[in-house]
């Protein structure tokens, strides 16, 4: 009797192992292979025209490249919460200068060539953009002033965009970029 119990026990264990093995084969054979989803890279605009279109798209919403979620109308307290304290209105780490309106909200965001003794550079991605590229995307400026450093003014929706170049030629590169509200920009007062 012990011998027959041992046989049944051995047969039961073997059958159990076969069932487990078949179950494992079934799971492995029918399950989807585990593949890590590759995140597609965000297309970074490369051509000067694409970059000019990017500037336009952001400016139409009161934004500039590199400092989301801050835009025209953002309260100064929120700017401090997001970027930390500034040196006056200058954020050297972001190479950007903010002007505030009487309600302490951003009314102008500038990537400026020079601010006092500090140089603030436009983002490197915009260094290859020429005024000709801006004109191809935005058309002729509403207003232009200056000789050595020329400011080209555009109105986009409720905002003004000013591009500063090193001369009147269309082949001049950008030195500064400013997006402003109507309340903050003296140029817009007469329009």
From TrEMBL:
Q: What InterPro entries does the entry give?
A: DUF4309
Q: Which domain of life is it from?
A: Bacteria
Q: Please name the Pfam families in this protein's record.
A: DUF4309
What is the protein named? DUF4309 domain-containing protein
Q: What is the lineage of its organism?
A: Bacteria, Bacillati, Bacillota, Bacilli, Bacillales
